[in-house]
Amino acid sequence: MAAPEQKTQEDCSLLPLVHDIIKCMDKDSQDVHQELNKLKTKIQEAREQISTMPGISMSPEQQQQQLQNVREQVRTKNKLLQKYRSLCMFDIPKA
Q1: Residues 17, 42: contact at Cβ < 8 Å?
Q2: Model confidence over 21-39: pLDDT tens digits?
């Protein structure tokens, strides 16, 4: 059995499917229903991917608050890192 492929941004592109549907409609092809089903399947897959994304259950306000908290943590850690770097015991000899 082959290993499942990693999902990429290309996997969520709906434009090629819409293009195929339009081509089928221009040709009065019977394949329109098959192409529409492909589009429905792709949309369902995208919905499933979105529902499993971290933070999707949080409101935009909660996400903004979490982002501010993380940015503040990064600022604090950067300040500490600069402080420790300035201590002489961390001088790295240049080779």
Answers
A1: yes
A2: 888 888 877 788 888 899 9
